[in-house]
Automatic annotation (TrEMBL):
NCBIfam families: kynureninase
Cofactor field: pyridoxal 5'-phosphate
Self-association and partners: Homodimer.
Extent of the signal sequence: none
Name the record gives this protein: Kynureninase
GO terms, biological process: anthranilate metabolic process; L-kynurenine catabolic process; L-tryptophan catabolic process to kynurenine; NAD+ biosynthetic process; quinolinate biosynthetic process
UniProt KW Transmembrane helix keyword: no
Binding site for pyridoxal 5'-phosphate: L85, T86, F113, P114, S115, D116, T153, D182, H185, Y207, W237, T263
Keywords: Hydrolase, Pyridine nucleotide biosynthesis, Pyridoxal phosphate
InterPro entries: Kynureninase, PyrdxlP-dep_Trfase, PyrdxlP-dep_Trfase_major, PyrdxlP-dep_Trfase_small
């Protein structure tokens, strides 16, 4: 049985704050501060460039990738870290396209994160392919014999709607296509099983539910059946079979190592590695059960106390990730008033108040405080204050 009281103590949670925005940026694991300080004073300061060998900086992307693999249903040696999620999306989709020569269609949905769609649109334009975008509930019907790549985010960033990864992957395979899954709102939040779903490629970020810190590096997974055949368009020095031979011609490394691009972000990977320590005693079925309990209690409380808000997430927890959205025409101002009261969620245009529930550190008291504070703000109309309507650069 997972000790969630212990995992909560592993985080620095500012006094007086109820934090329900871990689906945007996870809080700081206490161990990360000390681990990064030790890396800088004992490794960078004293070893200088020798840290690449002596401190193991060069192999960090593989070692940290192995730790994430357990959380997404992957095996050792199948996940590698580095770069941003956008770059990893580009690598995965471009590699999948090249594995399906003669097919030129990429299918996605309108609930996908815009950055993923931007990448697919640009890639399609560059190689003469076509990006088709349909509504989330129309994806299965849109899988056709001309499809090359199905590119989806498993959990919708606005609504929390969760695609059936196994069913859609099977449908894509029946049509002869490959799948690319974005786990940005899944890894660390739900019970992902890439191997069980027989997916082809997956990518994800680590600064949300994995708590790696702002700008933490992304990860990419390649199914072993594709690992030595995948040819990403973006080929970098660290993905070469022999980087320090300095060959003029690119020769891909074996397996997922070929998905490395540039120099590893050592400081960020050190913080992420410390953050992953929290997961060592966590059972994913326990995580999922606690997530369902928290989100169900929050939905019930808000609907009972805040009738002006409209649920924007699936009511069935089996079709929902670990976040809940409610809609209101003045959603931005209401969220700013809520944050001013110490309950931190976020806003997504045009009208969604979004709340992320991270079982590692959120508990029932957080739900009760969030519901009570939200109800008071709506009852008193405090959100009408002009200062809550001034939009900041980041919402």
């Amino acid at each position: 049985m997972t000790d969630f009281a212990a995992t909560r103590r592993a985080f620095h949670l500012p006094q007086g704050i109820t934090y329900l925005d871990g689906n945007s940026l996870g809080p700081m694991p206490i161990a990360a501060r000390d681990r990064v300080a030790r890396m800088m004073t004992e490794e960078w300061s004293e070893m200088l460039i020798g840290g690449w060998n002596r401190a193991g900086w060069y192999v960090q992307p593989r070692k940290v990738g192995d730790r994430i693999a357990r959380l997404i249903g992957a095996g050792p040696g199948q996940v590698v870290m580095g770069d941003t999620l956008t770059i990893k999306v580009f690598q995965a989709v471009s590699a999948a396209l090249r594995l399906r020569p003669g097919r030129r269609v990429i299918l996605s949905d309108s609930g996908n994160f815009p950055s993923d769609l931007y990448v697919a649109e640009g890639l399609a334009r560059a190689v003469g392919a076509e990006l088709r975008v349909v509504a989330p509930d129309e994806v299965e019907a849109a899988i056709a014999p001309d499809l090359a790549v199905l590119m989806l985010t498993e959990v919708d960033y606005r609504t929390g709607r969760r695609h059936d990864m196994a069913a859609l992957t099977a449908r894509a395979h029946d049509a002869g296509a490959l799948t690319v899954w974005d786990l940005a709102h899944s890894a660390g939040a739900v019970d992902v099983d890439l191997t069980g779903a027989d997916a082809d490629f997956a990518v994800g970020c680590t600064y949300k539910y994995l708590n790696g810190g702002p700008g933490a590096p992304a990860f990419i997974w390649t199914h072993p059946r594709h690992a030595d055949a995948a040819q990403p368009v973006l080929q970098g020095w660290m993905g070469h079979d022999a980087p320090f031979a300095f060959d003029m011609d690119y020769r891909p490394a074996s397996g997922v190592e070929r998905m490395r691009v540039g120099t590893p972000p050592v400081i960020a990977l050190t913080a992420l590695d410390a953050a992953l320590d929290v997961w060592d005693g966590v059972a994913l079925p326990d995580l999922r059960a606690r997530s369902v309990d928290l989100t169900e209690a929050f939905i019930a409380g808000v609907e009972a106390e805040c009738p002006d808000l409209v649920l924007n997430s699936p009511r069935d927890p089996g079709k929902r990730g670990s976040q809940v959205g409610f809609r209101h025409p003045q959603g931005y101002a209401i969220m700013q008033a809520l944050i001013a009261e110490g309950v931190v969620g976020d806003f997504r245009a045009p009208d969604v108040l979004r709340f992320g529930f991270a079982p590692l550190y959120n508990h029932a008291d957080d739900v009760a405080r969030a519901v009570g504070t939200l109800a008071r703000i709506l009852h008193k109309g405090t959100w009408k204050n002009d200062m809550f309507h001034r939009k900041a650069a980041v919402t």
